[in-house]
Design brief:
The chain has an eight-stranded mixed sheet with strand order 5-4-3-6-1-7-10-9, sandwiched between helices. The protein has a two-stranded antiparallel sheet with strand order 2-8. By secondary structure, the protein is of the alpha/beta class. The longest helix has 11 residues. The protein has a single domain, classed as Dihydrofolate Reductase, subunit A, CATH 3.40.430. Helices cover 20% and strands 34% of the residues. The two termini are 17 Å apart. The protein has four helices and ten strands; from the N terminus they run E-E-H-E-H-E-E-H-E-H-E-E-E-E.
Length: 166
């Protein structure tokens, strides 16, 4: 099973502020949808709740990672460990599992993933409250990077980066 983190983070690794992303990148949302559509996604409870509508992401097999064994959400499978999610995903013949946040989930699972799909938002957010861990270049290699300017649908310049574990 290939484990892939998909995340958008600023130059100072901010991924959130007050339960939201402090930017608006239409292209990143489309990229996220294209990469994860039809695939299993794993997220923490706060990330699931941040969607606002209390429903799982459509077109994907939704896992919620939680220590709370009594937690239940319609349309999502609550798991208590990454291994549980991998087991179920393999049973359903998936070859990849996308980890979509939030900050604590990224921090816990980064040492176990094979690849990071990072949308680097080229700005600094001083008042962020949720962060993505720093990628140690001794352990990770930048495989590709595509740069894009700010435009009418994207509030900031950004890059789509693919990092692979060495």
């Amino acid at each position: 099973m290939e484990l892939i983190i998909i995340v958008a983070a600023t130059e100072n690794n901010v991924i959130g502020r007050n339960g939201d992303m402090p930017w608006s990148l239409s292209s990143d949302l489309r990229y996220f949808k294209n990469m994860t559509w039809g695939m299993p996604v794993l997220m923490g409870t706060n990330t699931f709740k941040s969607f606002g509508h209390g429903k799982p992401l459509p077109g994907r097999f939704n896992f919620i990672l939680s220590r709370n064994k009594d937690l239940a959400f319609d349309g999502a499978v609550v798991v208590n460990s990454l291994d549980d999610a991998i087991f179920i995903a393999k049973e359903k013949n998936y070859k990849q599992l996308y980890i979509i946040g939030g900050g604590e989930i990224y921090k816990q699972l980064l040492p176990k993933v094979d690849k990071v799909l990072l949308t680097r938002v080229h700005k600094v957010v001083e008042d962020g409250d949720t962060f993505f861990p720093e990628l140690d270049e001794k352990k990770w290699v930048l495989e590709s990077s595509q740069d894009f300017p700010k435009d009418e649908k994207n509030t900031d310049p950004y890059s789509f980066q693919v990092w692979k574990r060495k």
